[in-house]
């Protein structure tokens, strides 16, 4: 366990006092994951990582494959993009590239684009689908 701690000692494990929420250290309990998803607004916004003492980790969104909305262009791709950013930063040793993905996601959200899971009536944001959200993120990379 000590080696794992040393390998990932730079990963934030608490919510900062400012308004930016980066990554939350959580247990593998699904109950806990669901509660943390409410802090970021949706499971579609919550990346995750499973890492061991050696070898590659598994980086994926907490929400799984969302089969109930498959093929409807409603899924939020941001958790997958942010999971890729975590993989670049913490597993592949490419934090600059991970930051590029994180910044692109932030810029898209700041520009007011939202998928159905994070859209709030009257918020002035534009409702878009999964494909367009991915395209918007790519434009900022």
Entry summary:
The chain has helices spanning 2-7, 30-40, 78-91, 95-110, 130-139, and strands at 47-50, 58-61, 113-114, 126-127. With 141 residues, the chain is mostly helical.
SSE arrangement:
Blueprint: H1 2-7, H2 30-40, E1 47-50, E2 58-61, H3 78-91, H4 95-110, E3 113-114, E4 126-127, H5 130-139
Parallel strand pairs: 3-4
Antiparallel strand pairs: 1-2
Helix pairs in contact: 3-4, 4-5
**Domains, number:** 1
Beta-strand proportion: 5-15%
Structural class: mainly alpha
Q: What is the residue-mean pLDDT, rounded to a whole number? A: 75
* Biggest sheet strand line-up: 1-2
Radius of gyration, whole Å: 15 Å
Instruction: Please provide the ordered H/E string of secondary-structure elements.
Output: HHEEHHEEH
Low-confidence stretches: 1-5, 12-39
- Discrete helix count: 5
Helix content: 40-55%
Outline: globular
Number-wise, the strands total 4
**N- and C-termini, Cα separation:** 36 Å
Largest sheet: 2 strands, antiparallel
List keywords for this structure.
141 residues; mainly alpha; two-stranded parallel sheet; 5 helices; 4 strands
Task: Describe the 3D structure.
With 141 residues, the chain is mainly α. The protein has helices at residues 2-7, 30-40, 78-91, 95-110, 130-139, and strands at residues 47-50, 58-61, 113-114, 126-127. 40% of the residues lie in helices and 9% in strands. The strands form two sheets. The chain has a two-stranded antiparallel ribbon. The model is unreliable at 1-5 and 12-39 (pLDDT under 50).
């Amino acid at each position: 366990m000590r080696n794992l701690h040393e390998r990932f000692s730079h990963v934030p494990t608490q919510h900062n006092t400012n308004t930016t929420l980066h990554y939350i250290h959580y247990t593998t309990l699904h109950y806990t994951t669901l509660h943390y998803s409410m802090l970021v607004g949706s499971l579609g916004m919550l990346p995750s990582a499973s890492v061991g003492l050696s070898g590659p980790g598994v980086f994926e969104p907490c929400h799984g494959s969302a089969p109930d909305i498959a093929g409807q262009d409603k899924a939020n791709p941001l958790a997958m993009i942010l999971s890729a950013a975590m993989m670049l930063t913490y597993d592949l040793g490419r934090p600059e590239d991970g930051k590029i993905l994180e910044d692109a996601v932030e810029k898209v959200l700041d520009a007011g684009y939202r998928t159905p899971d994070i859209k709030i009536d009257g918020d002035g944001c534009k409702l878009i689908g999964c494909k367009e959200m991915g395209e918007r993120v790519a434009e900022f990379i």
